[in-house]
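Encode chain A's predicted structure.
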Amino acid sequence: MLDRIERLLSGVDDDKLFFISSYPNIFYYSGFTSEDAYLMISKNKRILVTDSRYTVQARNQAKGFDIVNIEGGWENIFKLLDEICISFEDEKMSVAEYKKLKEHSKNKIWLKEQSVIDMPRRIKDKDELRLIADAEKLGDDAFLHVLNYIKTGMTEREVALELEIYMKKHGASGLSFETIVASGIRSSMPHGVASDKVIERGDLVTMDFGCVYNGYCSDMTRTIVMGEADEKQREIYDIVLKAQLEALNNIKIGMNCSDADRIARTVITDAGYGMNFGHSLGHSVGIEIHEKPLFSPRSADILEEGHVLSVEPGIYIDGFGGVRIEDLIGVIDGEIVNFTSSPKELIIV
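Encoded structure for chain A:
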C-alpha cells in the first residue's frame, strides 16, 4: 500500500490533501474492505474515517492509517481538513456530500481530480497481477463446469445461476457484473443479461461472466452452439476468432491502444461485418470491471508494463444472433500474458 500512496503523492505540494470517498480507491490505497469510510492522504497525513461498526476492522486492515471514529458527525471530518487544497473524487462523490463539505470549508480550494486519484491503479503490481490471474482461473473452471451442465430446455437464468454458484462455491466473494447468458437471437445483444428464454437446439449461446476474488475481478466470454451449427453461425464465429487471434498475436508493449483495436476491427470490417462490431476491443480490469486504459479507436494510451485489458471482438446481427470471444491479458516483464485458458474453437454441445 505504501508504494501506491507514494505514487499518488509524487510531486504533490505539502498543502494538498487527497479526500477519497469511493470504495475501489479506499480499498486500493488502504486495504479496508468497506465503503463506509473516507480516506485523507497528504504528505504527512494518513487517516481513515469510519464509524464504530468498522473501527476494529479498519485497525486490522488499514495498516499505517490513523483510524478516526465519525460517530460525532461531519464535524469530525471538517476538523481534519487542515490543508488548503483538497483533491476529491468528483466523478464518485455525491452532490449532497460535496455541498456539505464545501459549505463547512469555505476557505479551502476543492480540486476535481478523479483521474489523478485513479491513475496509479492503471499499473497493476505483481500481487495484483497474481490476484487477477487467480480470479480468471476461477472463471475458466466455471466455464468448463457449465459445459457439462448446459442443456436445451434450460433457461438462460438457470445457466447463469450455475456459473455464479460454481464461482462462489470455489472462493468468489461476488460477481464482477451481472452475468450475461444470451441465446438465439438474443445473442445479438452485447449485454443481453440472462432472461427466462429457453435455450433451444441450434441456438448460439454467449456467456460473459466474471467474479470478484480477493478483491479483484475476472472477465471472460465464450460463445457456443447448441446441437448443430449452421453455415452462417460458423462463418461469423470463424471471423470473430480470427480477429481475436490476430489482435492477440500482434499486441505488444509500447503500442498505442487504438492500434490493438484497429487490428481486430480490420479483420471484421474486411469480412463485411464492420457495422456489426459496435463496441471497443477491450477495457482494463482490476478492482473494478471497467477501468482504464481502453483498447478503443479513440484511445491515446500506450500499452505499458502492468496493464491488464480484455480482448473481446464481436459480431452482432439483429434478428439472427451474435458471437463474442473474450480473453484477459496482462503485460508482465515486457511480454503479453493471456490469463484465460478456456478453449476457443467452436464448441457444439
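The chain has a mean pLDDT of 95.
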